[in-house]
Amino acid sequence: MTEPVVVLIELDETLLLGLLEAAVADADPLEVMPPVAGPPGWTTERREAFLEFHRRRSLRQETAIEKTYVIEVDAWPVGAARLEKVPGGVEAGIWIGRSQRGRGVGKLAAAELLELAKADGAERFVASTTEDNLAARKLLTGVGADLTVRGDGVEAGLDLR
Ligand SMILES: CC(C)(COP(=O)(O)OP(=O)(O)OC[C@H]1O[C@@H](n2cnc3c(N)ncnc32)[C@H](O)[C@@H]1OP(=O)(O)O)[C@@H](O)C(=O)NCCC(=O)NCCS
């Protein structure tokens, strides 16, 4: 199998609708944003919440707290990654659409995300996941992070200095 060509592009308003489409087509709402009350699935409320989540956290200058990157494979949005400044470093997050998982996209995107964090001068790269999320744990150890289990949670950390 040929290695996918993975590119991270900083999110903007134009890319946001494509990212929503990718999430709706290929991910569970809980994998890509905080819980929103209501019946399961991509309800109108959840679609609006997804847009507002990214506008508030990344696109609206007055409220932005993180940079979000659209993950593209062959120029097609398949997921997103984020870097949020936290005390002592940056916190990373990533999701890939289900149909694209398990073929190395996450690994390539995580490596690129790490480079973006370094280029931004971050001193430490941190991320958290759950104990049962084997793919995320492998992804994080794959970039060289140390994992610490805390209850059901797993904290990952990597010094970048
Ligand atoms: C975590 C996630 C981003 C991984 O993306 P991916 O494209 O599937 O990852 P890759 O194909 O690059 O695989 C990365 C590693 O995980 C392993 N892996 C992938 N899916 C796996 C699974 N279901 N179970 C166990 N290991 C798995 C791969 O073998 C690879 O390990 P290796 O480095 O030893 O070869 C993806 O599963 C996802 O979006 N999950 C939902 C959101 C999420 O949990 N985000 C993480 C929060 S930090």
Map the helices and strands.
Elements lengths: L5 E5 L2 H14 L2 H4 L11 H16 L6 E8 L2 E11 L2 E8 L8 H15 L4 E7 L3 H9 L3 E5 L2 E7 L2
Parallel strand pairs: 4-5
Antiparallel strand pairs: 1-2, 2-3, 3-4, 5-7, 6-7
Bound molecules: coenzyme A (COA).
Could you walk me through the main structural features you see in this protein, from its secondary elements to its overall organization?
By secondary structure, the protein is an alpha+beta fold. The chain has one domain (6-159): 3-Layer(aba) Sandwich (Aminopeptidase). 36% of the residues lie in helices and 32% in strands. The chain is built from five helices and seven strands. The protein has helices spanning 13-26, 29-32, 44-59, 105-119, 134-142; strands at residues 6-10, 66-73, 76-86, 89-96, 124-130, 146-150, 153-159. It has a seven-stranded mixed beta sheet, sandwiched between helices. A hairpin with a 2-residue loop joins β6 and β7 (153-159). α1 packs across α3. The longest helix has 16 residues, at 44-59. It is globular and about 40 Å long. The protein starts with 5 loop residues before the first strand and ends with a strand. The mean pLDDT is 96. Coenzyme A is lined by residues 31, 93-96, 101-107, 127, 129, 133-136, 138-139, 142. Coenzyme A (COA) is lined by residues 31, 93-96, 101-107, 127, 129, 133-136, 138-139, 142.
CATH superfamily: Gcn5-related N-acetyltransferase (GNAT)
In angstroms, what separates the terminal alpha carbons? 35 Å
Mean pLDDT: 96
Please outline the major beta sheet.
7 strands, mixed
Total number of strands? 7
Helix content: 25-40%
Briefly note the structural class of the backbone.
Answer: alpha+beta
Form type: globular
What is the CATH first-level class name? Alpha Beta
Order of helices and strands: EHHHEEEHEHEE
